[in-house]
Amino acid sequence: MKGISDTISIQDFNYNLPEERIAKYPLEFRDTSKLLYYKKGVIESRVFSELPHILTDHHHLIFNDTRVIQARLSFFKSTGAAIEIFLLEPWLPSEYGLSFSSNRECVWKCLVGNAKKWKSGILSKEVLTGNNSTLLRAEKTGTEGNYFLIRLFWENPEVSLSEIIEQAGSTPIPPYLNRKAESSDSIRYQTVYSANEGSVAAPTAGLHFTDEVLSRLGDNGVLQTRLTLHVGAGTFIPVKTENAMEHSMHTEHIYLSRKSIESLYASEKQFIAVGTTSVRTMESLYHIACKLKNGTADTGNLFLDQWDAYETNLQISRKEALESIISFMDKQQADHLKMSTRIMIAPGYSFRMVDGMITNFHQPSSTLLLLISAFVGEDWKRIYNYALDNRYRFLSYGDSSLLL
User: Fold this and answer.
1) Statement: the pTM of the whole predicted model exceeds 0.70
2) Across-strand partners of 125?
3) Which pLDDT value is given to residue 313?
4) Fewer CB atoms near the end CB (10 Å): N or C, the chain?
5) Dihedral angle at the C-alpha atoms of 167, 179, 22, 212, nearest 10 degrees?
């Protein structure tokens, strides 16, 4: 594959992360977190509330406005056995909006905790939504790979799935926090600009933003565009193969409005992606555009596979890529672009869309660390050593970095 080695040792992306450096809870105020500022090899330590003093009218921020759902549903069998159903993504209907608005039944791809205790039969639990008491039922209908297909059904047509899981579910905080979700997590494990339901993990770089910081950035002339990538549980799956190139990436689903794409097309500023999910979306958008331009895209199902970005010989500008997307939407008479991606960004990847990123500090031996290395090269070690030496807080509820 062009520009990337066939062998990348995952051990080269390991580092010692002491348990006490993992932030188990967020800070009281979002924007008081530390901000590591990296530019052209120079590292400085700042505070996140200073971001409006760093970014100028030369910058264009790109946010992922996905909203984390209360994805963990707990049931009890008549025997007393506890069964947890972890909603991953909608199966029937497969469209997120349609599934969340379902008012009788739907099927989701799920993980099931204590599955050996649930051989067959229907699970049920009472859910109180407003003044309504609804009996939610669940049954296995099949499997998809290593996952279960679970039918959720209820008899109250006045209640949607969205309302049910909001009341019955709990926040799917990351497993490495080693604690149960608390009521405060339903607010703090959510960005202040979250809008579109679908994620089972937060785009955590966005957790540092406040309405005030966003307003001050706007006053400075920093443009802001929002897109949606629903973050899947696969984001927590460590690379288990010695050769990182043998790791299988998970699929994530992306939605962009015409307004967002047109704002990106009109912009001449530097694109700063907020979070690795926004990075993956923007880079996937470029390569989907290449596939549209060279005629290799399935126009009925826009999809970027794991290595597609390394196999195209087409070289187009950022502007041309966005123009190609707009042209496709014109032909489809579409107001929104839907696509999915398995892109794996690893050392050797050439970034086409983003000029910088805001991101947290990631797990050792993870695909997210491979992405960081692809962007800053071997300096990722200097950045992470600096953060460890200066007592930065790591992972989802931890501190952040601005990498330019």
Assistant:
1) yes
2) 136
3) 81
4) N
5) 20
